[in-house]
């Protein structure tokens, strides 16, 4: 496996939950990381924990110019970006017959366009350098469906399609693309809703650190080896 000691990894939605766990895992494996989040205070607090190998970046992922500026700031601090973990996302529990159309727009802007903007900000130089790895944080919701989260599920299906298309685009440039698809994870985002807390009571849940280890596994693959998809499920009662 490759060391991440010479890697600079941009992580979106990085200040809490899965993103923070990914940042900790990457720094633990030797990488330098850009902790990008809309919550500047939380990003700075995590960077204080992580030390000199981390840089706090503030951006709204649904604004391409802000994401591109954050990527430029990371390059200026540490050098070329060799890894991206497009993790930023929001969730919503609502039936199609009851959901708020404006909140649907916001969810798709963050979950789908936010990932696309992050990729757009880094993939060109990666292709030119013939080096890099992009991780898209999807979900088992990108493979399955159930009642109550239709637009979130749609966003994760979109992520899966984007990821496979991007993989084909990047393969000849020796840039890896991995879809990471966890089942329910015990995060502040899940705990912030009654529905999420109910699911945590009923089903076995992954810890964010489990997802962080999976991301590092993908990033550490040697040149020429790509892990296309990683599906993670906790052992126990399954959603």
Q: How would you summarize what this structure contains?
A:
The chain has 239 residues and is α/β, with parallel strands linked by helices. 48% of the residues lie in helices and 15% in strands.
Topology record:
Layout: E1 8-12, H1 17-28, E2 32-37, H2 40-50, E3 54-58, H3 64-78, E4 83-86, H4 101-129, E5 133-137, H5 150-171, E6 176-182, H6 188-191, H7 194-202, H8 208-219, E7 229-232
Parallel strand pairs: 1-2, 1-4, 2-3, 4-5, 5-6, 6-7
Helix pairs in contact: 1-8, 3-4, 4-5
Describe the structure.
The chain is α/β, with parallel strands linked by helices and 239 residues long. It has one domain (8-231): Rossmann fold, CATH 3.40.50. Helices cover 48% and strands 15% of the residues. It is built from eight helices and seven strands; from the N terminus they run βαβαβαβαβαβαααβ. The chain has helices spanning 17-28, 40-50, 64-78, 101-129, 150-171, 188-191, 194-202, 208-219; strands at 8-12, 32-37, 54-58, 83-86, 133-137, 176-182, 229-232. A seven-stranded parallel sheet has the order 3-2-1-4-5-6-7, sandwiched between helices. Strand 5, helix 5 (150-171) and strand 6 form a beta-alpha-beta unit. Helix 1 crosses helix 8. The two termini are 33 Å apart. The mean pLDDT is 96.
Strand content: 15-25%
Give the helix level as a range of percent: 40-55%
Number of domains: 1
CATH class bucket: Alpha Beta
- Could you tell me the radius of gyration in angstroms? 17 Å
Strand order of the largest sheet: 3-2-1-4-5-6-7
The biggest beta sheet is recorded as:
7 strands, parallel
Per CATH, the superfamily is NAD(P)-binding Rossmann-like Domain
How far the N terminus sits from the C terminus, by CA atoms, comes to 33 Å
Structural class: alpha/beta
- Compute the number of helices: 8
CATH topology: Rossmann fold
Q: Could you state the order of secondary-structure elements as H and E?
A: EHEHEHEHEHEHHHE
Q: Strand tally, please?
A: 7
């Amino acid at each position: 496996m490759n060391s991440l000691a010479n890697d600079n990894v941009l992580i979106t939605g990085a200040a809490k939950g899965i993103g923070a766990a990914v940042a900790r895992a990457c720094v633990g494996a030797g990488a330098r990381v850009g902790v990008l989040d809309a919550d500047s205070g939380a990003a700075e607090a995590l960077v204080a924990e992580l030390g000199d190998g981390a840089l706090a970046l503030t951006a709204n992922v649904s604004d391409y110019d802000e994401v591109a500026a954050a990527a430029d700031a990371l390059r200026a601090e540490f050098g070329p970006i060799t890894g991206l973990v497009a993790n930023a996302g929001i969730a919503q529990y609502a039936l199609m017959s009851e959901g708020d159309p404006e909140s649907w727009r916001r969810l798709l802007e963050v979950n789908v366009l936010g990932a696309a903007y992050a990729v757009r900000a880094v993939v060109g130089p990666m292709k030119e350098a013939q080096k890099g790895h992009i991780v898209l944080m999807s979900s088992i919701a990108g493979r399955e469906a159930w009642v109550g989260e239709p637009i979130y599920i749609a966003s994760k299906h979109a992520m899966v399609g984007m990821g496979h298309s991007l993989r084909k685009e990047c393969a000849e440039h020796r840039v890896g693309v991995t879809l990471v698809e966890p089942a329910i994870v015990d995060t502040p985002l899940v705990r912030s809703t009654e529905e999420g807390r109910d699911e945590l009571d009923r089903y076995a849940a992954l810890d964010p650190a489990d997802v962080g280890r999976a991301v590092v596994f993908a990033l550490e693959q040697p040149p020429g080896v790509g892990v296309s998809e990683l599906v993670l499920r906790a052992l126990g009662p399954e959603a």
